[in-house]
Design goal:
This protein has 5 helices and 8 strands. It is α/β, with parallel strands linked by helices and 219 residues long. The protein has a single domain, classed as Rossmann fold (3-Layer(aba) Sandwich), CATH 3.40.50. It has a 6-stranded mixed beta sheet with strand order 4-1-5-6-7-8.
Length: 219
């Protein structure tokens, strides 16, 4: 997959979508009448907290970068209670890290890229919102900021949210094979970084509904 665009020269579509997300962070999701405080707040991360914790422990990570963190509410307003009764006042306390670095280009408080690498990079509910033409440099950036590991979760189905212009918020919906080709090509340039990408898709059920299935691409 050839990288035509870059961080310094993103596609016009990337710039267009970034403007849409900046607007939604301020105005909310107008089609479902979701207030701004609850729009891209970061609340999709907690369900991956245990998986991320296992990687932090495995690689003895002291810090992580949340690439596409939204408003970062997941780090200030979420308590963790484990089955064994232990409780933690926050996700960073549960993870046992010294710092979580937040980055989100659509949210002004976190729109500055970090200046150094972090031990781990996490990216949940983000890549499917990015244009396909820009995906090579975005995934490259995930690996470039990581010392030891990258963890990402990707939704391979349409979103419930819509952009301010009415478009579906998930603009890149691709197969496992497509993602595997892209990820492994980037990973080959970063042999010291382990990667764990979980791809979610909706599979039909016998009763006419759907269920979530996950495929893992790792190396």
């Amino acid at each position: 997959m050839t990288a035509t665009y870059s961080r310094m020269s993103p596609s016009p579509r990337y710039c267009e979508l970034l403007d849409q997300y900046r607007r939604m962070h301020v105005e909310g999701e107008l089609h479902q009448q979701i207030p701004a405080a609850q729009t891209f707040s970061g609340q999709s991360l907690p369900r991956h907290g245990v998986a991320i914790k296992s990687l932090i422990d495995k690689f003895h990570a002291r810090n992580v970068l949340d690439y596409g963190c939204g408003k970062g509410v997941q780090y200030t307003s979420v308590r963790v209670k484990l089955p064994d009764g232990r409780e933690f006042g926050s996700i960073p306390a549960y993870w046992g890290v010294e710092a979580v670095v937040c980055y989100d280009p659509g949210y002004e408080p976190f729109n500055r890229l970090p200046q150094t690498k972090c031990d781990g990079v996490i990216c949940t509910d983000v890549l499917e919102h990015c244009p396909e033409d820009d995906m090579p440099w975005i995934v490259e950036e995930l690996f470039a900021f990581a010392r030891y590991f990258v963890f990402a979760n990707v939704a391979c189905y349409p979103a419930k949210k819509r952009l301010a212009n009415g478009e579906n918020a998930h603009c890149t919906i691709r197969s496992e094979a497509w993602w595997r080709e892209l990820i492994t090509a980037v990973a080959d340039r970063h042999p010291n970084v382990r990667y764990f990408f979980s791809l979610d898709r909706l599979a039909p059920t016998a009763d006419g509904g759907s269920k979530l299935e996950t495929a893992l691409i790792s190396g």
